[in-house]
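Appendix B. Worked example

We walk through a single record from start to finish. Start with the input: the chain for PPIase cyclophilin-type domain-containing protein, Odontella aurita, length 300.
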Amino acid sequence: AAAVVANWVDYLDPWMQPAVGAKQRRASTHRCSHKPMFRDCVNPIFRAIAVALLLAASCSRTRGFYPGPSCHGTHPRISADAGISETGIGDTEKKTTRIYFDVVVSDEAQPIGRLIFHLPDPNPLPLHAENILGLCRGSRRSIDPAATYVGCAFNYGPQFIEGMAQYRWGHNLQGKGRNAVGKADDKIEEDPQAMAKCQRSAFGGSYYGINYSDLPGYDDEAVALSVALAGPGRGSSRISVVRVGESPMEWGERLLMNSGVLGWMDPACGNVLRTMARQRLGPPVVAECGVLEDGDEMET
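Next comes the structure step. The output line below is what the pipeline stores for this chain.
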């Protein structure tokens, strides 16, 4: 904003100069040749506007609302506090936890394949990440059979089938409405200060967590794993798989609004996701899920 104001001031400089004699005005090389009386009138007005804009830009940057590095989680101090690197996806030397979903169509007679996702540790939205890990591990399944993704179906319809006009470049897995963090039926709420550090601007709104443009393969096939932070499914077991790399930018950003990006799909699973998106046999169902330990094969 300061740069824009500076350019305006430079452009309007002839209007903002003190009044001079008629001979000097005729000899002036300024771009503006308006009548001196009008120039003298607008001089204090433009100066006041310029000062107000500069002050507003300065205050916005100081308070963290300016859409620059501090607001996008790329400032080193903020990134460190949020548990992510300046690139937004975590230091490559740090650990990521891998979760998987074995997907079939309607029943195990029609297998699609395995989807694997990486969740950085620490995660910018730790409670939501812990909830997904707990549901994948089945940590509460012995006392609450619904606390798992096994048997859950992805939403199915024209907007979830690639090749149809309504396709939205994303797939939602609703879960069973039972959480593995806190009380099973309570909404998960992240620390507001931690969320503020990883807030990001998108399509006139905001999303949180990892910067989607920094995901592995963003220029080609990046896929974000996200959770709803507002609206239907907020704070629950629902997760979304968003194809931010292949989708038009306005679609990817729109699908991420009011949500949190917790991780990304392993690029090696691209063909499995495309098969799931293009098939028209029925709803994709999670036949099995879990957490891959170090050394486990991906089996995509």
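Two observations about the output. The chain has nine helices and nine strands. Residues 2-63 form one domain.
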